[in-house]
């Protein structure tokens, strides 16, 4: 639970649909980025809670159920386990990974809606819906496709265009077709409930003015564009069976639109995490004067096409329900799209590299974590390439970090009987320069990760590897150790300093590559008291500290060769 006087960090990642296996774009866009940030916060001693879960209601699930000849519940059960297994393989360290079909979700969503309705922020309007006469059903969201009215993308869905991100009603589609039978639907009237966004616009603008400072640049741009265009009432119900029932007698045959209930899922997942403490979740979700006065810093990770639902719809819902404090200290951290050679990664269309593909290569999950974070599309789209993956791993991870770590520890093992040699107090200009450069990188690393700029933080780690290699190459301890007693002392000083840099790297790399970090920590017997991220670099391994016997080579080279051969067969 939150603790007054401490830094309390609540982290969410956009809830993945259960309509397919998660692809690498989903993983870097949401769960992996959030995991790195959560691991970093814990290493900085912050009271951290990281929740996520599968998004299980709506047309995405119904469509998948039709495709596979299963019930929606069976689809959810099947893909929940698949998602959970892939995230476990990727070492995603959720505090709780739940489901939006859990009882807590129904309870929290219906209470939230009742508050919005009671406070006068809902509207009942008759609207045109698309009816497939052949299937005898209204076509919502993913049951209908057509041309986007904004960008002419030919496969826009009935609620959003994958091409440009435009949100729409299905009746706006150009030449729509039923996804089930390919027939052209006809418009019919249907009564629906709407969230009155125009009525909320003033309060929403005030909230954004106070909250937007910590958001990523793209999140601010997208949200401001929405506000500038003017807000319209947003339909929050659907003529479906698979969803959370609307708790009003006159709408008993309807369910909530998935993007109304999905963000509320962060609250219900927190409630599920708190278990028997029925009111514990409200301490995480405000008002933040409660819970003993504990302040909560909320960080939400998502892809750019999810921004309007999180920065407009979700806060508007909370304001309408008289819970604006729930997002008082919030930051939206988003990524652009990860592209494949044949277009944007897409679960529904089967485009891209999927989590099970990564697992089947035989490569360690840390390899994929490193590459995805190295290529993280923070400000613009980036492209995934098998060849580039191998190049980045070889050049940056193996030849840079792996080379430095292996040489430093091998010299301790080979020349100093596995004991860290003395780092003397008589420092050369080169020594002082190395420590200053590394301290600067540590400072930049902390600054980058505090701002959730994960790619920049990884660059700082790689820079430390470059500095270490240059320092070692310039001092040549393998030559000095064969010289005079003074040369041998100098060799020990250089190797001891490098061993301490390895200890630092083992901690800094932990949020990014947790298994690699554990391996290095075990190799150097890193003391528990040094397994936190410092503010600057100061040598901390004592003279005589014993390390483990160094293996013949760095541990990921063989896997990379075998895995890359597998990947090339798939291209």
UniProtKB/TrEMBL annotation:
Catalyzed chemical reaction(s): tRNA(Met) + L-methionine + ATP = L-methionyl-tRNA(Met) + AMP + diphosphate
CDD domains linked: Anticodon_Ia_Met, MetRS_core
Database matches in Pfam families: Anticodon_3 (PF19303), tRNA-synt_1g (PF09334)
InterPro entries, per database record: aa-tRNA-synth_I_CS, Anticodon_Met, Met-tRNA_ligase_1, Met-tRNA_synth, Methionyl/Leucyl_tRNA_Synth, MetRS_core, MetRS_Zn, Rossmann-like_a/b/a_fold
Keyword tRNA processing (UniProt): no
UniProt-listed Enzyme Commission number(s): 6.1.1.10
Residues annotated as domain Methionyl-tRNA synthetase anticodon-binding: 426-546
Protein's cellular compartments: Cytoplasm
Broadest EC class assigned to this enzyme: ligase
UniProt xrefs under Gene3D superfamilies: HUPs, Isoleucyl-tRNA Synthetase, Domain 1, Methionyl-tRNA synthetase, Zn-domain
GO-annotated molecular function: ATP binding; methionine-tRNA ligase activity
Residue ranges of domain Methionyl/Leucyl tRNA synthetase in the record: 9-408
A single BP term in Gene Ontology: translation
Alphabetized PROSITE patterns for the sequence: AA_TRNA_LIGASE_I
Alphabetically ordered keywords of this record: Aminoacyl-tRNA synthetase, ATP-binding, Cytoplasm, Ligase, Nucleotide-binding, Protein biosynthesis
Cellular component terms (Gene Ontology): cytoplasm
PANTHER family reported for this sequence: METHIONINE--TRNA LIGASE (PTHR45765), METHIONINE--TRNA LIGASE, CYTOPLASMIC (PTHR45765:SF1)
Family: Belongs to the class-I aminoacyl-tRNA synthetase family.
Protein known as: Methionine--tRNA ligase, cytoplasmic
Organism expressing this protein natively: Ranatra chinensis
Lineage: Eukaryota, Metazoa, Ecdysozoa, Arthropoda, Hexapoda
């Amino acid at each position: 639970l939150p603790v007054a006087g401490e830094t309390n960090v609540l982290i969410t990642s956009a809830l993945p649909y259960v309509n397919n296996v998660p692809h690498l774009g989903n993983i870097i866009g949401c769960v992996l980025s959030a995991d790195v940030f959560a691991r970093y916060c814990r290493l900085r001693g912050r009271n951290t809670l990281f929740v996520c879960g599968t998004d299980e209601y709506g047309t995405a699930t119904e469509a998948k159920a039709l495709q596979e000849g299963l019930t929606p519940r069976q689809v959810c059960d099947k893909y929940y386990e698949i998602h959970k297994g892939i995230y476990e393989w990727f070492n995603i360290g959720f505090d709780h990974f739940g489901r939006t079909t859990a009882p807590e979700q129904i309870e929290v969503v219906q209470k939230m809606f009742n508050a919005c309705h009671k406070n006068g922020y809902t509207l009942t309007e008759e609207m045109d819906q698309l009816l497939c006469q052949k299937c005898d059903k209204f076509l919502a969201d993913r049951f209908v496709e057509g041309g986007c009215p904004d960008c002419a993308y030919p496969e826009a869905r009935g609620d959003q265009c994958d091409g440009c991100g435009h949100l729409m009603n299905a009746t706006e589609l150009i030449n729509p077709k039923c996804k089930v039978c390919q027939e052209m639907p006809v418009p019919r009237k249907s009564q629906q409930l709407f969230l009155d966004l125009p009525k909320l616009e003033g309060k929403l603008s005030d909230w954004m003015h106070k909250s937007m400072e910590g958001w990523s640049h793209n999140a601010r741009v997208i949200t401001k564009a929405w506000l500038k265009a003017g807000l319209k009432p947003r339909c929050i119900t659907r003529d479906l069976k698979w969803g959370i029932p609307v708790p009003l007698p006159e709408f008993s045959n309807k369910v909530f639109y998935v993007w109304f209930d999905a963000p509320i899922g962060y609250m219900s997942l927190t409630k599920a995490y708190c278990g028997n403490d029925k009111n514990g979740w409200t301490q995480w979700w405000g008002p933040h004067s409660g819970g003993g006065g504990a302040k909560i810093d909320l960080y939400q990770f998502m892809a750019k096409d999810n921004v309007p639902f999180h920065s407009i719809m979700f806060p508007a819902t909370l304001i309408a329900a008289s819970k604006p404090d729930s997002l008082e200290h919030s930051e939206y951290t988003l990524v652009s799209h990860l592209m494949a050679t044949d277009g944007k990664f897409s679960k529904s269309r089967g485009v891209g590299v999927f989590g099970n593909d990564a697992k089947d290569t035989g490569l360690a999950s840390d390899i994929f974590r490193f590459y995805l974070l190295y290529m993280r599309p923070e400000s613009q789209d980036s492209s995934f390439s098998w060849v580039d993956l191998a190049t980045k791993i070889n050049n940056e991870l193996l030849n840079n970090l792996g080379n430095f770590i292996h040489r430093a520890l091998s010299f301790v093992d080979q020349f100093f009987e596995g004991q860290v040699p003395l780092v003397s107090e008589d420092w050369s200009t080169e020594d002082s320069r190395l420590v200053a450069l590394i301290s600067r990188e540590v400072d930049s690393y902390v600054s980058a990760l505090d701002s959730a700029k994960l790619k920049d933080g990884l660059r700082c780690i790689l820079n430390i590897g470059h500095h270490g290699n240059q320092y070692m190459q310039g001092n040549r301890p393998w030559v000095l150790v064969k010289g005079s007693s003074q040369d041998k002392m100098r060799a020990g000083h250089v190797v001891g300093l490098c061993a301490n840099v390895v200890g630092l790297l083992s901690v800094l790399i932990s949020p990014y590559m947790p298994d690699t970090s554990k391996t290095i920590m075990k190799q150097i017997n890193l003391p528990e008291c040094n397994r936190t991220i410092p503010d600057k670099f100061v040598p901390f391994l004592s003279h005589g500290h014993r390390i483990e016997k160094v293996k013949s080579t760095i541990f990921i080279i063989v896997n990379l060769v075998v895995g890359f051969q597998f990947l090339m067969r798939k291209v």
